[in-house]
Amino acid sequence: MAQKLSNKEVANRPEKPQSAITFINKILKQGVYGADFKTEDGLFCSDYVTVTYKDNSKKKYERQTLKNLNEALVAEYIARGPFTKSIDITGKMFGKKQQQTLKVAKFIKTGEFGGQEGGKKVNLGIVFEKTFFPRVLEALEGKKMLNENKKGIDSYSMAVTYILQKTSEMKNSAPVSAEDTGSRNTKRPIVATGKQLYIAPNSHTKHGALLSDLDIHHKSGTSHLSLKYGSTLTFMNAGVSKVLNEKEMKAGEIKNTEGKNILATFGIDETIFCDVFNKYGKQNFKSDSGSVNLNAQQKASLTNLLKTGIGSGYWMVHGQPDQSVNFYYMDTAKNKIASKAPSTVQINYGGSRGNGKRVDIEFETDYFEFKVNIRNKQRGLYPSHIMLDYTTKDAIGKTPINNNSDPDRF
Q1: Taken in order 2, 6, 11, 13, is the CA torsion positive or negative?
Q2: How many other CB atoms are found less than 10 A from the CB of residue 371?
Q3: DSSP characters for 226-246?
Q4: What does the pLDDT look like over 147-172, one tens digit per residue?
Q5: pLDDT digits (tens, 9 = 90+) for 32-61
Q6: How does strand 214-218 pair with strand 42-53?
Q7: Which of 48, 325, 403, 406 sits CB 3.0–4.6 Å from 159 for a disulfide?
């Protein structure tokens, strides 16, 4: 059965805002988005949306002729999104002349919202990589970068031009060729020996090549590019089933040294941690959650984890839903600021609601907002992976590039 959109999803969840941005952009037919939605009864073309907010005020969002007004409407909807009570979309089914109003739950969750297409969930990150890499190859051959219909300049053409120029300036050498390195799927395991926690290898300068999805080769060396897409990204996705193993957790005590060190770094209570999974479905752990102060050793261990998780010596190419790109270089200086561990972290046993089969740790640095989650990714109960998710702050010095960018400033 096809997965449906939900009111909550398009009303701007703070932890996952992209669906809300896509939704209102489609209603307004903004940028690259069309106004059509897929339903079980066929294709539905939206005309406008009426939003009732929790204070019972209503707002009608419809397409305007002025682009800057459209952008203002998007910004307003996203800002007020968390306070949405109901969302009603008015439009017409294809082939029908009569308008009708539908609830969000009538819409099928398609690829634009990270849903299913052709029976498979669309990985927008992979789509971005497969779109961006050919543009780089065309640029290196001196070709005019056209879109898929060959009728206009491709949306990533300006970004590719800018990136090739900036990487060449750093290497003081023109680009010669490009290589798709994302398919290597390089492993970066988590290691917790002694009192050190890190992503192997234990040096942030050695991770640039490992994080690379696209290498640009110059005569003087190689530029590593990490291609990412979306609002929430991942620095680490490591298996932990051997160090936080089911047998020990069922007994209520972690004996594996690496497992103990992982939990100790974040100040996680071992007993409560085990209970989250042992008592899943029987107990809520929201009252056990809260802020934890880290001591000097814990901060040092977390800093080392972040240093190696973030890495250095690569360019970040962060694709956006409007087909613009955020671009910056992660060097040693940025790595040092980005990886400085905070004094406190927020531990959510059972996740944000307290009843999930997971433990989340939230904190931030000057450059990133982080969420570490320890959970099972394989439909089981006991933890299989630890993930380090993040969103990037503007303070990192991102350069936004789109086809409206001025090439003369390059």
Answers
A1: negative
A2: 20
A3: EEEESSSEEEEEEE-TTTS-H
A4: 554 444 556 888 898 999 999 999 99
A5: 678 888 888 888 999 999 998 888 888 898
A6: unpaired
A7: 325
